[in-house]
From TrEMBL:
Ranges of compositional bias, category Polar residues: 121-131, 144-176
Transmembrane segments: 18-40, 47-64, 70-95
Alphabetical UniProt keywords: Membrane, Transmembrane, Transmembrane helix
Transmembrane helix keyword on record: yes
Descriptive protein name: DUF2628 domain-containing protein
Region (Disordered) residue spans: 119-196
Length: 196
């Protein structure tokens, strides 16, 4: 009766074509169900829209007068049967491809869920017991450390002094004449200004 369109065999194809029987109900009132089924089964929006059109036709059959409804019903019935037989091959091929990729889609879904879970509950995001310990205090053990007094400056400080126009060493004495009498360098020699 039908030729084989997939490698799964005629038995599988016949079993997957049961939806055509819905178009054979009298006056095609269940034709919309067959197209909604195949459209949803393989995620084909065109067939879902056809199913909605056939649903509209079935509603029109019951909403119109007897003479017009008979013409609509017979036309809908014949068209839906021919349409179902015509799209059967495309449906079987799409279903075969959909079923073939089902395992890989499932694996991709599982991988995506695993990545989301790892991002949410990743072990490195929780502090380990060693990370919760406070850091050990730093002890200065450098023997070459010089103590600076007065206006002595380390090489780094002298470079910062030359580069910084707002540093007290780079400002003119006239602009801060009143400031010099009120402030002096501290005796510790750390370069901080102290009000006297």
């Amino acid at each position: 009766m039908f030729r084989a369109y997939t490698n799964r065999g005629k038995g599988w194809e016949t079993l997957q074509s049961w939806w055509i029987l819905l178009t054979l109900f009298p006056l095609g009132v269940a034709s919309f169900l067959s197209f909604l089924y195949i459209g949803l089964r393989v995620k084909n929006w065109r067939w879902i829209i056809y199913g909605l059109v056939y649903l509209g036709g079935a509603i029109a059959v019951f909403a119109t007068s007897e003479g017009v409804s008979a013409i609509i019903a017979i036309t809908l019935w014949i068209v839906s049967i021919i349409h179902a037989i015509k799209v059967r091959s495309a449906f079987l091929i799409q279903l075969d491809v959909y079923k073939s990729g089902e395992k890989s889609r499932e694996q991709q879904r599982i991988d995506r869920l695993r990545q989301e879970a790892q991002a949410k509950f990743q072990p490195s995001s929780f502090p380990s017991p060693t990370q919760l310990k406070p850091p050990a205090p730093k002890i200065k053990t450098e023997p070459n450390m010089r103590s600076f007094t007065g206006n002595d400056a380390s090489p780094n400080e002298s470079q910062q002094t030359e580069a910084n126009p707002l540093h007290p060493a780079n400002t003119s004495n006239t602009s801060h004449a009143s400031d010099d009498s009120a402030t002096k360098l501290s005796s510790s020699g750390n370069g901080r200004r102290v009000d006297v």
